[in-house]
Amino acid sequence: MKHLTSLFDLTTVEVREILNLAKELKDAWSHGHREPLCRGLVLTQIFEKPSLRTRVSFEAAMMQLGGSAIFMSAREAGLEGREHHGDVARVVGGYSDVIVLRTFAQSLIETFVESSGKPVINGLSDDFHPCQALTDVLTIEEHFGDSEGRTLAYIGDGNNVAKSLLLVCAHLGMRFTIAAPEGFQLDEEFLKQVKHRFPNAEFTQFTSPQEAVSSADVIYTDVWASMGQEEEKEQRAAIFQNYQVNSDLLAEANADAVFMHCLPARRGLEVSEEIMDNPRSIVFPQAENRMHLAKGLFAWMLR
Ligand code: CP
Ligand code: NVA
Fold it and tell me: Which of the four pLDDT bands, split at 50, 70 and 90, describes residue 115?
């Protein structure tokens, strides 16, 4: 049985298989074909945090492939103290063919892997956001025609999205740079695991955004305060004030560099208003691609 808890779960061949399936299904979809690869299958999504893209893209993907989708908040599912988490997982597994979870703790995803008996997908945890990073390389390859040898510069907090981007870059031979203030860089334990798994991964940590973006093909950012860190919002806004992606920073990157953001964006904080709506911003095709990637992932996991 296949799961996607983080990009450590996949081999590089599997990453490529998922991307190829996503591309094929997107191409078919754009020609009006919706092959019912998941006819009769049921997706259950249980989320501890809000979501627009993840929830709707997985739901739309399953429906376009001929299946159906159930959504519950963690409270509705009884995960907030009503029932033992392993028991919830086992019951949900009995009704579902695939489960997408959005959690605080990565360990809740592991509990579902152990107890549900069904394929489990991480739809974002405090540690990782693998479906986002897979979508992002799909989008990069669509835009540039390739990904290997390209440089992705991530500006901001060394969070779940940053970690997943480093992993996908390591899989695909992309260079990854990050600019984050001291104390907000990628954690050492994670970097140790990356170096062990991908000895040839090319990545550099900077504190200066200008240094990180020099010779970048993609400039990427994410919110400074992630879901669950709302109380640190103001403090982080002060710490990160020199880390905004704006036209001055974009001017330091390659002439054909593009801007990406997983969204939701806080316009005027991590990204300036003019960059979000700039012709070099590909954030909306990137958001749409969440659905195409979800279809590729279902096709890879379930057929
Ligand atoms: N990018 C992303 O995961 O968006 P949502 O939080 O809206 O799902
Ligand atoms: N780092 C952000 C990503 C949102 C898609 C968060 O975890 O809230």
Answer: very high
CB proximity list for 40: less than 8 A, separation 6 or greater: 66, 67
Has residue 256 been placed in a domain? yes
- Print the domain residue range for 219: 131-284
Residue of 104, 164, 261, 263 best suited for mutating to test ligand 1, as the one with most atoms within 8 Å of CB: 263
- The structure's pTM equals 0.98
∠ CA(80), CA(82), CA(83), 5° rounding?
105
Q: What is the pLDDT of residue 21?
A: 98
Give yes or no: residues 63 and 154 share one domain.
Answer: no
Which tens digit of pLDDT belongs to each residue from 267-286? 999 999 999 999 999 999 99
Hey, which residues are catalytic here? 102, 129, 132, 222, 262, 290
Torsion of CA 4, 8, 9, 10, to 10 degrees: 100
CA–centroid distance, 57 to ligand 1, in Å, is 9
Q: Specify if 67 maps to a domain.
A: yes
Can you give the pLDDT at residue 23?
A: 98
- pLDDT value of position 303: 76
Pocket test for ligand 2, best of 223, 231, 260, 270 (most atoms within 8 A of CB): 223
Question: 149 CA to middle of ligand 2, Å?
Answer: 27
Q: What is the residue with the minimal CA distance to atom 4 of ligand 1?
A: 53
221-231 pLDDT tens trace = 999 999 999 99
Query: Is 49 near ligand 2, meaning CB less than 6 Å away?
Result: no
Helical ranges in 173-282 per DSSP H = 188-197, 209-213, 233-239, 247-250, 273-276
